[in-house]
Amino acid sequence: MYLFSVRKFLFLFLFISFFSLSAQDKEETEPDQTAVRPPRTDLPFEISEKKRLRERDLKIKKEGGYFTGLPLLNSDPNNGIGYGIRVFYYYNGEKSRPLFEYTPYKYRIFAQYFTTTKSNQYQDLSFDAPFIFDTKWRVRSDLIYEKNPNLLYFGMGTDTLRPLSYLERNDPSGRTVRNAGFSDYSDSLQYRRPGGSGEQYTTVTDNKYNRYELENPNWTFSGEYSFFGGTVRTIAGARISRQIIRSYDGKWQDSKFGGYDQIAGVPLNLLVPNEEVSTPEGTTKITEENKAGNLIGFRGGNVNTARLALVYDTRDFEPDPNRGVFLEATHERSLRVMGSDFQFNKNYVSARGFISPVDWFTKKPHVLLEKFVLGAKAALLQTNGDVPFYEMRNMWGTEGTQSGLGGRTTLRGYKQDRFIGQTMGYANFEVRWKFASIDVAKQHFDFQLVPFYDLGRVWNATQDVNLKGYKHSRGIGLRIPWNQATVIIIDHAWSSEDSQTFVNFNHIF
User: Of all helices (H) and strands (E), which one includes residue 108?
Assistant: First the structure.
């Protein structure tokens, strides 16, 4: 039943794969820039010509080692303005090195210190080495400390797909507003209301009703082995982590006077509409669901997992591809014998495709069309077992973990983790057009205009997967590849519920 249901959703997955493979076959049967170069005979092992850099990309790839990095001035509507520093060190080796033309770098190290105006912290020390020591092995490792007091939780499953609604001014006797935008919904929760049955205080606010705090130190590592000229990889790895969950129940928050806060019968919110008053938080969403027995992991715990994956990858340049496909299937399992507090497993599949349609028609495109790429991704996650609620949102891919539906890497027009469920599916479509390039102080910068479109949804069970009822978002972005391998992004997205702007690093796929 699981495979049958996945096939229904993966119509889109297979379309992306087939379309990209067809385009790739066309490129391989017609002369192009890689075809005029004879295959290298000094490679340490067979590597597919599909992985070879284009001549124009090879010309600007730097030799030796170099640093990139800059102060982080990120923007995320959920976490506030971010600041810190991220420093990359790339080592490419000499241009005469056989693998120079087939890898984005020999190895890469980056270190990050990052915090935001809303107290989110994300520190990371990362290492990545494709074909380490000129072997078929790739090694990745990340040591991460995360503390996020702004995580959102709207529940799980198809119920979260319903439009937002709220009581006007959070007044229990007030008018219900339906099909609400996120901003209006959040504003309404800031008003004070009478404490309900079982609540500690007689007057409370719901300012943090949908929020909780997570503290999460973790270490991930993996080893990958290549087959068939580097186009196929098998991956084995592990994650060791500790999650600490804190709710906001009873904690004092800034709020606004509610409709029942009155002087001589006149509501205070009319007399001083913008006055802030400190008020204890009422019962939050995670507490409600925990008391109802619908939540696992209310206080956090250890989550240690073993990871296995299979990848098919023909992209010509990983950080900023021009062509190729990337197909992956991952399996992650948490067991108590591994020191985990929970037993569950996850299955994740994704397909990405990249084509350069102008190259179909001419091998010498105008300089304004030398990089014009159509990119698409489709993905599906299934989770089984006793999975804690905060873990339900995580989707492990071999090139990084994505979180929930919503936010910078999935449905960009919705808040992070707006939709989570036992089964989650989503797709992204982008046009990447390089319209300018400059060289400054021996540093190369490209500029890409990127219109995009996202869709996705969740289901209560995998057998319910279908192609109906999706949420949609759209937007426009700017990409600035710096020395090719470091990609700065600025995206503005909107949906029927929200609009938001992101500033960060790396393409989302």
Answer: strand 107-116
Contact 335, 387 (CB under 8 A): no
CA–CA distances in Å: residue 179 to residues 176, 182, 414? 10, 10, 14
Tell me the C-alpha distance between 375 and 358, whole Å: 14
Global pTM exceeds 0.90: no
Q: What is the helix (H) or strand (E) element at residue 431, kind and residue range? A: strand 423-440
Q: How many CA atoms lie within 13 A of 7 on its CB side?
A: 4
Place of tokens 């297979």: 14
Phi, psi of 286 (to 5 degrees): -65, -35
Torsion of CA 91, 97, 99, 104, to 10 degrees: 30
114: which 2 tokens? 């990052």
Nearest CA to 52 out of 231, 293, 183 is that of 231
The rounded distance, in Å, linking the Cα atoms of 375 and 158 is: 29
The 10s digit of each residue's pLDDT in 191-230 is 999 998 888 899 999 999 999 999 999 999 999 999 999 8
Structure tokens at 265: 């019968």
User: What are the respective helix, strand and coil percentages of the chain, to the nearest 5?
Assistant: 20, 50, 35
| 8 A C-beta contact, residue 95 and residue 106 | no
3-state secondary structure of 165: strand
Label residue 15 by pLDDT band (50, 70, 90): low
SS (HEC) of 17-85: HHHHHHHHHHHHHCCCCCCCCCCCCCCCCCCCHHHCCCHHHHHHCCCCEEEEEEEEEEEECCCEEEEEE
The answer to whether 465 touches 483, Cβ cutoff 8 Å, is no
> What one-character DSSP code corresponds to residue 419?
B
Other Cβ atoms closer than 10 A to 166:
20
Separation of first and last alpha carbons in the chain = 29
CB 243 within 8 A of CB 215: yes
Tens of pLDDT, residue by residue over 34-92, are 446 788 889 999 898 888 988 888 888 999 999 887 667 666 667 878 888 888 899 99
The span from the CA of 313 to the CA of 305, in Å, is 25
| Amino acid letter, 495 | S
Pairing type for strands 423-440 and 443-459 reads antiparallel
